[in-house]
Write a structure and sequence with these properties.
The chain is built from three helices and no strands. The chain has 124 residues and is mainly α. It has one domain. Helix 1 runs antiparallel to helix 2 and helix 2 packs antiparallel against helix 3. The longest helix is centred in the C-terminal third of the chain and has 38 residues. The termini are far apart.
C-alpha cells in the first residue's frame, strides 16, 4: 500500500507542476513569441500552442516512465526520499526545457531583427 500511495502522490504532484509551468509559459511567453516572429500574432499563437502540447507530451511521458521503482519502501522516510528525487528530476527537466526554448527563440529574434543585441520586448 505504501508503494501505491507513493506512486499516486508522485503523479499528482508532477502532473500538477507540469500543467502549472505550461500554463505560465503559455500565458507569459506570448509577447516574446510575437516579437520573435516580427509581429505575426497568428504564427506566434500557433507556435505557442504547439510548444505547450510538446511540453505536455515530453514531461508527462517522462513522468510515466519514471513511475516505476524497485526500491523497497517500508517507511514514510523512504517514500519522501524517493518522491523528492523523482520530482526533483521532473523540475530539472521542466527548467531545462524552458531555458532551451528561450535560447532558441532569442536566437530567432536576433536573426529576424538583424541585431544580436536588440533590447527585450516591452510588456504594455
Amino acid at each position: 500500500m505504501i508503494v501505491a500511495s507513493c506512486y499516486f502522490s508522485y503523479l499528482v504532484i508532477s502532473i500538477a507542476l507540469t500543467f502549472w509551468v505550461a500554463r505560465t509559459l503559455h500565458r507569459n511567453g506570448r509577447v516574446f513569441l510575437v516579437d520573435a516572429f516580427r509581429g505575426n500574432e497568428a504564427l506566434a499563437d500557433s507556435v505557442n500552442q504547439l510548444l505547450v502540447v510538446g511540453f505536455y507530451l515530453i514531461n508527462i511521458g517522462y513522468i510515466a516512465l519514471a513511475l516505476k521503482t524497485t526500491d523497497p519502501l517500508s517507511n514514510f522516510r523512504q517514500v519522501i526520499e524517493l518522491e523528492s528525487v523523482k520530482i526533483g528530476v521532473v523540475l530539472l527537466i521542466l527548467g531545462a526545457m524552458h531555458f532551451f526554448n528561450i535560447l532558441v527563440f532569442a536566437k530567432m529574434r536576433g536573426r529576424s531583427a538583424g541585431l544580436g543585441s536588440a533590447p527585450p520586448p516591452r510588456i504594455a
